[in-house]
Amino acid sequence: LPPTPLELVLPDELRDSLRLLKPEGNLLNDRFRNLMLRGKIEARNPVSQPKKARRTATEKWTFKDFRVPGEV
User: Fold this and answer.
1) What are the distances in angstroms from CA 46 to CA 4, 34, 49, 53?
2) What is the helix (H) or strand (E) element at residue 38, kind and residue range?
3) What is the pTM of this model?
4) Average pLDDT over every residue of 39-57
């Protein structure tokens, strides 16, 4: 599991009212971590699909084997 980041508010950042405090953290990351801890989501590294080789267009030798008119 990924380690939990510490979310601290320093004393100089505190306001006299809780309404003036800015929300910190990410709700999506917190929810995702909570689901992993409860075992609802697998806690593993994502598996990516292997990359396919790019196709190259080539000409066939029968196409390249041309004849000059007038020669045998």
Assistant:
1) 19, 18, 10, 22
2) helix 27-38
3) 0.49
4) 88
